[in-house]
Amino acid sequence: MALDIATIAGLIVGIGAVLVSFLMEGGRLGSIFQVPAIMIVVFGTLGAGMITTSINTVMAIPTYLRIALFGKTIDAIATIDQVVWMAEKARRDGILGLEKHIQDTPSPFFRKALQLVVDGTEVTELRQILETEISYVEDRHRRGIELFKKLGGFSPTLGIIGTVLGLIQTLSSTTDTSRMAAGIASAFIATLWGVCMANLFYLPIGDKLRHRHIDEMTNLELVTEGVVAIQSGENPRMIRTRLMSFVNPPERPRI
């Protein structure tokens, strides 16, 4: 599974812009990487996020990251071609002729839909089963999207909390003006981490997951319409024409 170029490039450009600008102002990278500030922001944010959701959703964070970083864009054109090919096959050999081609379909949802067709599921019931499946998939996706949106909201606040704790420690433990100034500057590192984690990681990853979600929902709806049309015995040419509505207009001439 290949890395998603847009996601990786975006993270590199965003984080790189912050670090390079900091260095150009004469800063030192070592002054940014403070373990206490990172702990407060990262683990405090994660703890707050755990309170708002289930443990299963939190445990799925590595999966969400894999989807965001490695997921590939779904090719609607290829899906339409496959649906139409199945429709032509069913028209020539009958619905039962599709059974030997079910395992050749890479999508689990598509395989399940074709199996329901082969089993002779009535059209109305077929659509209902597939729409129910889609609703459960949508619910699972939204949990991950909402989690990263919440983490993006909590992170700046935890950064401020870290800064306040640092200021309290600095102002209460020293009277040396020079040391106090250095301590105050160090305290604001937590705010920097909170804001950067929110705007360069949590929120962008949440939006990437939403983008993946939209693509997959469109593909599942496309498969549903196509399989229902096959079960209804519609003409493959009409099926292709109908499914064209799921494709962006600039891409339609490719069909």
**How many angstroms separate the termini?**
26 Å
Q: How many discrete domains?
A: 1
What characteristic shape results from the CA principal axes? elongated
Characterize the largest beta sheet: strand count, sense, and whether it forms a barrel.
Answer: none
Rg is 26 Å
Number of H/I helices: 10
**What is the mean predicted local confidence, pLDDT?**
87
Number of beta strands: 0
- Broad structural category: mainly alpha
Low-confidence stretches: none
Residue fraction in strands: under 5%
Helix content: over 70%
Secondary-structure element series: HHHHHHHHHH
What does this protein structure show overall?
The chain is elongated and about 90 Å long. Helices cover 76% and strands 0% of the residues. It is an all-alpha fold and 255 residues long. The mean pLDDT is 87. The chain has one domain (5-76, 125-254). The longest helix is centred in the middle third of the chain and has 51 residues, at 123-173.
Brief characterization of the structure:
The chain has 255 residues and is mainly α. The chain is built from ten helices and no strands. Helix 1 packs antiparallel against helix 9, helix 2 runs parallel beside helix 9 and helix 6 runs parallel beside helix 9.
